[in-house]
């Protein structure tokens, strides 16, 4: 079913790309991998960094529960109404569709009333812990672009850990801890994302913000992706250029938002009181009506299309790259080492295409992009590229090896606000400006701008809003 949808979208994509230049070239969304341009030598291809749209990733995952028989209803059992221990005539019965609560109901359409939800068996074996792992697997590297949101139909759990894997489930790292009492549950001081900064954005925290029992109305738990983006792009994510610049140069930051699997470890259900009511253990269980995960296939900036075929996501690689994540050069295109595309220079980035192997060509092909010497970025001040992030997280070697991109030139990649391009590797900015393309007021960095410039977080003509659309994947004809 998805396949046909993908194919038709793919057909649309092919149509669009064969029409050439469907989008203005000026401020890209990274949504085209190449366009034809006209030069004195005629038509030539211009290659650029590209990525798939951000989309609802829950359509493409596999879910696994541990223990496998933890879903309620087999055998049928009664449970108490949420929050009311004296109404215990609700029934879960896996063999009756109207009374069953299978895991799929976490990912179906919400908006019905009452909502549909997965539900666990009740805590009848108290005091043995009631623990459930819900593992979501994509079998594909994906990049998260929006908050992970989990809606609990009963109370939110007293203790929970969100974990992630980057290697298809072989190893796991905590992403965030959730508890009504972080110190008691995990020996961690409670924090919220708002307590973090650019320097500490990668810190794994325990939060108490989302863990109250029956008594509060909110059913929702967040893992805050956007708040973390905001440390770089500003509170309204206006300065996406700055975020993209950071993602480009700091592998640890990029990896932080990248996963192949997620695991929700439910460790203790909502109790809502200090003591567990042992006479009414049918009050305690987990129930989840919705899980939201927004992201995009990671294609290393070498593809805009990600195909779902045979229950598997695969990037449709351009730039003569190949592999599920476009992570290597095609055969006969190994004329230089593979390298991911780059968001820089804003707005079109750099494709870093694979070029024909020396042996397979007669005369070297002409490329209309320049590949400046690798040593260039090493020389340029890494602080310029990664202004605030703790530099201990990124060695200068990493920075140097990662980028071969032009940061600026005098044709398409202009330094802004009167900056001048120095050797294609950095913009020399007027004293009042900073940022990769001099797009930022220096006083904003220091937080000392006058109040009226405070809202000018995005300079005039900034790509920020357009890039925001690209990143957060709002309406576009190519959403898959
Ligand atoms: C859940 O997964 C963790 C590892 O991520 C494992 O240590 C734990 O035993 C699992 N719990 C259950 C109930 O399967
Ligand atoms: C990739 O290779 C094909 C030939 O197989 C060539 O026509 C095309 O221009 C190449 N693309 C890039 C981005 O180098
Ligand atoms: C790259 O740098 C090396 C040493 O710094 C130099 O010898 C070489 O000519 C440079 N190549 C280009 C294309 O600039």
Automatic annotation (TrEMBL):
Residues 404-439 form the EGF-like domain. GO terms for biological process: animal organ morphogenesis; axonogenesis; tissue development. It comes from the Eukaryota. CDD domains: EGF_CA, EGF_Lam. Residues 46-296 form the Laminin N-terminal domain. The keyword Isomerase does not apply. Disulfide bonds join 429-438. Keywords: Disulfide bond, EGF-like domain, Glycoprotein, Laminin EGF-like domain, Repeat, Signal. It holds the Pfam family EGF_LMN_ATRN. Residues 1-28 form the signal peptide. SMART domains: EGF, EGF_Lam, LamNT. PANTHER family: NETRIN-G1, NETRIN/LAMININ-RELATED. This is Netrin G1. The lineage of its organism: Eukaryota, Metazoa, Chordata, Craniata, Vertebrata. The gene is NTNG1.
């Amino acid at each position: 079913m998805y396949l046909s949808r993908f194919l038709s979208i793919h057909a649309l994509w092919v149509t669009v790309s064969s029409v050439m230049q469907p989008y203005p070239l000026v401020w890209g969304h990274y949504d085209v991998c190449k366009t034809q341009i006209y030069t004195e030598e005629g038509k030539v291809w211009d290659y650029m960094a590209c990525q798939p749209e951000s989309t609802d990733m829950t359509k493409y995952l596999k879910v696994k529960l541990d223990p496998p028989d933890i879903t309620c209803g087999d055998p049928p059992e009664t449970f108490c109404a949420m929050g009311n221990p004296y109404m215990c005539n609700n029934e879960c019965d896996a063999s009756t569709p109207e009374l069953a609560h299978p895991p799929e109901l976490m990912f179906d359409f919400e908006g019905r009333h009452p909502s549909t939800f997965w539900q666990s068996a009740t805590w009848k074996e108290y005091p043995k812990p009631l623990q459930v792992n819900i593992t979501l697997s994509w079998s594909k590297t994906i990049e998260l672009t929006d908050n992970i949101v989990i809606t609990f139909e009963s109370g939110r759990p007293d203790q929970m850990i969100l974990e992630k894997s980057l290697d298809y489930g072989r190893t796991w790292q905590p992403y965030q801890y959730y508890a009504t009492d972080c110190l008691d549950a995990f020996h961690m001081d409670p924090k919220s994302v708002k307590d973090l900064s650019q320097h500490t954005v990668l810190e794994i925290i325990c939060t108490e913000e989302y863990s109250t029992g029956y008594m509060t109305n909110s059913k929702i738990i967040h893992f805050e992706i956007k708040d973390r983006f905001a440390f770089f792009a500003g509170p309204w994510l206006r300065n996406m250029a700055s975020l993209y610049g950071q993602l480009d140069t700091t592998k640890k930051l990029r990896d932080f938002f990248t996963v192949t699997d997620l695991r929700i470890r439910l460790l203790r259900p909502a109790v809502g009181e200090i003591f567990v009511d042992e006479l009414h253990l049918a009050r305690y269980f987990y129930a989840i009506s919705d899980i939201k995960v927004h992201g995009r296939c990671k294609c290393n900036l070498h593809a805009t299309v990600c195909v779902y075929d045979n229950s598997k996501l695969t990037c449709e690689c351009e730039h003569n790259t190949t592999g599920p994540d476009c992570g290597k050069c095609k055969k006969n295109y190994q004329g230089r080492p593979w390298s991911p595309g780059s968001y820089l220079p804003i707005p079109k980035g750099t494709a870093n295409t694979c070029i024909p192997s020396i042996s397979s060509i007669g005369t070297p092909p002409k490329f209309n992009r320049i590949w400046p010497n690798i040593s260039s970025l090493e020389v340029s001040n890494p602080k310029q590229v990664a202004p605030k992030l703790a530099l201990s997280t990124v060695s200068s070697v990493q920075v140097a090896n990662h980028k071969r991109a032009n940061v600026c030139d005098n044709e398409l990649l202009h330094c802004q606000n009167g900056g001048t391009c120095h050797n294609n590797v950095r913009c020399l900015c007027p004293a009042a400006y900073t940022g990769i393309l001099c797009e930022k007021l220096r006083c904003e960095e220091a937080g000392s701008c006058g109040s009226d410039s405070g809202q000018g977080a995005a300079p005039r003509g900034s790509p920020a809003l357009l890039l925001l659309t690209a990143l957060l994947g709002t309406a576009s004809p190519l959403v898959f």
